[in-house]
Amino acid sequence: MSRRGAVAAAVAGLLVAGSVVTALSVGAGRAARLAGRPPAEVVAPEDARPVPELTGITEWFNAPPLTMAGLRGRVVLLDVWTYSCVNCRRTFPFLRALHETYADRGLTVIGVHSPEFDFEKSPDNVERAVRDLDVTWAVANDPDRAMWDALRNSYWPAKYLVDRHGRIRLVHVGEGDEAEIEDAVRGLLADGGDPGAARAGAKHEPPRGKQTPELYLGYLRGGLVREGVTEDRADPPRRDRVRLAGRFTGAEEYVTAAAPGATVTVDYTARDVYAVLAPPAGSTARQRVEVRWNDAPVPPDRRGAAVVAREGRTYVDVRTDDLYHLLTAPAPGEGRVTLVATAPGVRFFTFTFGR
């Protein structure tokens, strides 16, 4: 067995008792957190690389199977996304507006769904996300990330703007720069005729400033790095770290609550807090998780869309593998979010933050 395999097997079977301080890796794949990103710029035709043919696509939603060869003569915007990524979701109003404004003028928008987690490979889950998130443009399911590799992509979300001759003229990573992207679309459409007077308009520009980066709980990206460290020792709670209290088992992508009362806590800086959570593997039963803000039930004006109040406590009902909106606020600030499993089996994947 390789060294990595031996470590993986050991950690996967680990039952952690007491309190664990978990230092977690920054989500390098979530592109919105890249600093110093260059502005969106259209490259000259002679400097552009050809777009690869759509490959590894197992299902299509909202459209019949498409090919890049068959789309020659149209401008194509490929949007690489995955449904648990809040940064991807925040670009949807703009993508929807582009689709509605320019589809009749020569633009085809294709969402390439390339999963980050194993549960996002399920076509049923992707179909549900397309429906629930009101994705109205074509979606190509890329469960093995074959198209991701063909594009030489590294981030979610990422956009590849292709001209009428099948050349990639613009690559954009993360959120924002919507006016520049729309100008590029209009410019490429104008190469073959008038793009029309209507504009989709910028729908969302992410505000800048400090916020907690995405935090992963699975050991593949950092995960459990110290065992048996209690919160009252030399390692006090620190911002932008996750602390586990109680009993958990570790896996590559997540940790699992092994007993009722298992607790996950993060001190964060952000306006909105999200978590990727899942019920026990293979189960469709609701899993209730208590949500606390600053060590108290979440007040009504701080509750995210997934949080409900019952008998003086606040909860999220984890019914499927998904992204859950836990907390919101009028403006970015510091706070503490605590999740408490009320039964064993719930899985904790990541925390994601927004401003």
Percent of residues in beta strands?
A: 25-35%
Low-confidence stretches: 1-28, 30-37, 225-235
Mean of all residue-level pLDDT scores? 84
> What is the tally of beta strands?
22
Give the biggest sheet: 8 strands, antiparallel
Helical fraction equals: 10-25%
3D architecture notes:
With 355 residues, this protein is an alpha+beta fold. The chain is built from six helices and 22 strands. The protein has helices at 3-12, 86-89, 92-102, 123-132, 146-150, 178-190, and strands at residues 15-16, 19-22, 49-50, 59-61, 75-81, 107-113, 138-141, 158-162, 167-173, 215-216, 242-245, 248-250, 255-257, 263-270, 272-278, 287-293, 296-297, 307-310, 313-318, 322-327, 333-341, 347-354. Strands 2, 11, 14, 16, 17, 18, 19 and 21 form an eight-stranded antiparallel β-sheet that branches. Strands 1, 10, 12, 13, 15, 20 and 22 form a seven-stranded antiparallel β-sheet that branches. A seven-stranded mixed β-sheet has the order 3-9-8-5-6-7-4, covered by helices on one side.
Summarize the topology.
Layout: H1 3-12, E1 15-16, E2 19-22, E3 49-50, E4 59-61, E5 75-81, H2 86-89, H3 92-102, E6 107-113, H4 123-132, E7 138-141, H5 146-150, E8 158-162, E9 167-173, H6 178-190, E10 215-216, E11 242-245, E12 248-250, E13 255-257, E14 263-270, E15 272-278, E16 287-293, E17 296-297, E18 307-310, E19 313-318, E20 322-327, E21 333-341, E22 347-354
Parallel strand pairs: 5-6, 6-7
Antiparallel strand pairs: 1-12, 2-11, 3-9, 4-7, 5-8, 8-9, 10-22, 11-14, 12-13, 13-22, 14-21, 15-20, 15-22, 16-17, 16-19, 16-21, 18-19
